[in-house]
Amino acid sequence: MVTQNRVPAPRPLSCPNCGGRIELRGFAHTRTAVCIQCCTVLDTSTPELRILQRFDEAMRVRPLIPLGTRGTLQGKKWEVIGFQVRAIRVDGVPYSWHEYLLFNPYAGFRYLTHYDGHWNFVSTVRALPAFTSFRGRKAAVLEGRTYRHFQTATATTTFVMGEFPWAVRVGETVTAEDYIAPPWILSSESDGKEINWSRGIYLTGAEIWKAFSLPGSPPQAQGVYANQPNPYADGMRRAWRTFAVLALLWVAALAAHWALSSNRELFRGSYHFAANTPGEHSLVTNVFTVPGDGNVEVQIRTDLDNNWAYFHLALLAEDGSRGFDFGREVSYYHGRDSDGSWSEGRRSAAATLARVPAGRYYLRIEPEMDAQASFGSPAGMSMNYEIIVRHDTPRPWLFLLALPLLLIPAVVRSFKAIGMETARWSESDYGTSVGISGDEE
Fold first, then answer.
1. Can the peptide bond before residue 183 be classed as cis, meaning omega within 30 degrees of 0?
2. Which residues pair with 142 in a beta bridge?
3. Average pLDDT of span 192-196
4. Beta strands 307-317 and 21-24: pairing type?
């Protein structure tokens, strides 16, 4: 009794060229067989095994997966019955890849392609894709998935071994087009008479080695393959989603900080300064109360016009127990030249003392102006100015410093993801990155 899982024994034949044993594992499906001893291509459609082509032994390529090896992919057991090497030439540079023909007597044929450590498990597609465009470039749609055109080239078979369900020959050429939607690839091959479509899904070497129980380690993947999944794309999207959440929290925290800061005015006074007036130019304000520990901001507003002033300031405790010396420069210039109106500086300035203990304080103010700087000023070495003292003012700069830090993870992941896409598309017909696909699955 034959069960579904039992694989029938292959049909043995003898090579008419070298007498070597040939086992037809594809049974009635096999149209062409290549003797693994002498690489002679045979027509198996007739009992005479007509010789179609002899291949130079020196050109023999040894497959990484030996013919006759069985393995399990996507839940089905497959046997490697054929192997071929195909090549394209792009900008004068030859590129070749290996194709393994897999067979299961109950499921038919599949293909396993290998290039520089990158693998694809390929199935023939019966339905025809619909053609469209994606960002101005050619694309194909199959079963709801959009594949972007990647490359068109002429593929030539350069080596064959094993058996095939078609009349394979070394030197045969087809026009091959690849469309990608990582991890999927949709390919067409046209020989001028018919077009065959196939769809592959990207697999790693480790998956292939495990599926076929191969000894040793698979070849290390080199570069970025056309439909290789971008491992950074999901991380980039998660990072930007996380940033969006953190940005909302950042805005909420900034608004709360602003709302909870009392920004209470403690003192306001207006004064006039004239450098040429005899006598002491320094002054002290009335005493005011700082209600609690926290920052104190001293704001200076002037009517300087094409002039400069410097304010020596000191916040002094009424009981003389502490003092804070600081200063601020205020300058404002404006005019007109051949480029139009211009201005530089501001008429106001502010200084913030970060930590001032609660208590009673007064401010000592000593302005100064420079005769040379005041030469072009309509008011000369004089000005009116106002002093405003506030307590517990908002300090948004801490939040502004935090914002770039929140961006770092998303920006780093974006650079990695875009870098991989750039490497991918640099190997295409377009030679540039077209961004990260939103249809990667």
1. yes
2. 145
3. 88
4. unpaired
Question: Phi/psi at 338 (nearest 5 deg)?
Answer: -65, -20
For residues 291-300, one letter each, b for 16 or more C-beta atoms within 10 angstroms of the residue's C-beta and e for the rest, the string is: eeebbbbbbb
- With beta carbons less than 8 A apart as the criterion, state whether 295 and 264 touch: no
| pTM assigned to the model | 0.68
Tokens for 277?
A: 């007036």
**How high is the pLDDT of residue 12?**
65
Q: Are 1 and 139 in contact (CB under 8 A)?
A: no
431 DSSP assignment? -
Chain segment 347-372, per-residue pLDDT in tens: 999 999 999 999 999 999 999 998 87
Query: Sheet harboring 264-274: ordered strands across?
Result: 264-274, 382-391, 294-302, 348-356
pLDDT in tens, 277-330: 877 889 999 999 999 999 999 999 999 999 999 999 999 999 999 999 999 999
CA dihedral 155, 161, 165, 168 (to 10 degrees): 40
Cβ distance 228 to 424 under 8 Å?
yes
Residue 58, strand partner residues:
none
Q: Which two tokens stand for residue 180?
A: 């990608």
- How far the first Cα of the chain sits from its last, in Å, is 43
**180 - beta bridge partners?**
148, 185
